[in-house]
Design goal:
The protein has 135 residues and is α/β, with parallel strands linked by helices. The chain has a single domain (4-131), classed as Response regulator (Rossmann fold, 3-Layer(aba) Sandwich), CATH 3.40.50.2300. It is 38% helix and 15% strand. The chain is built from four helices and four strands; from the N terminus they run βαβααββα. The protein has helices at 16-28, 47-57, 61-64, 109-131, and strands at residues 4-9, 32-37, 78-81, 95-98. A four-stranded parallel beta sheet has the order 2-1-3-4, covered by helices on one side.
């Protein structure tokens, strides 16, 4: 079975979507391919997100991730918006869902940890739904 391609999308592609791409690659690469993108670039991804993901999951996003635009990723099957409300970027796909996650940028480590753990749960749920053929 061909793996589905999943894009995690938010405006800046610097924090939540990057965390989701990293966790998708670590936790669900046997079921889907993970990408992230946005409508605006940042010079670097959020370093608090990098630090927390490295601490919790031993993933160094500085080595493998960069801020990307929607046109920088391949055509995808599923788009997951992170919770950017009215500014959420549109990307053609077969299935779209919004995870409604608050942006932890500028907040405490506890907020980043909470966001990372929510993303982990949602990645595992998404993986399960794809495996069951629900998406």
């Amino acid at each position: 079975m061909k793996k589905l391609k999943v894009a995690f999308v938010c405006v800046h592609n610097s924090c939540r979507s990057q965390m989701a791409e990293a966790l998708g690659r670590k936790l669900a690469s046997d079921v889907f391919e993970s990408y992230s993108a946005g409508t605006e670039l940042k010079p670097q991804i959020n370093q608090d997100a990098v630090r927390i993901i490295r601490k919790l999951y031993d993933i160094n996003m500085n080595e493998t991730h960069r801020s990307k635009l929607l046109e920088d990723i391949p055509k995808v099957d599923i788009v997951v918006t992170m919770g950017c409300n009215v500014k959420c970027p549109m990307l053609p796909c077969k299935h779209r869902e919004d995870w409604g996650l608050e942006d932890p940028s500028g907040k405490s480590d506890e907020e980043f940890i909470k966001t990372a753990q929510l993303i982990e749960k949602k990645i595992i749920d998404l993986k399960g739904r794809i495996k069951k053929g629900l998406l």
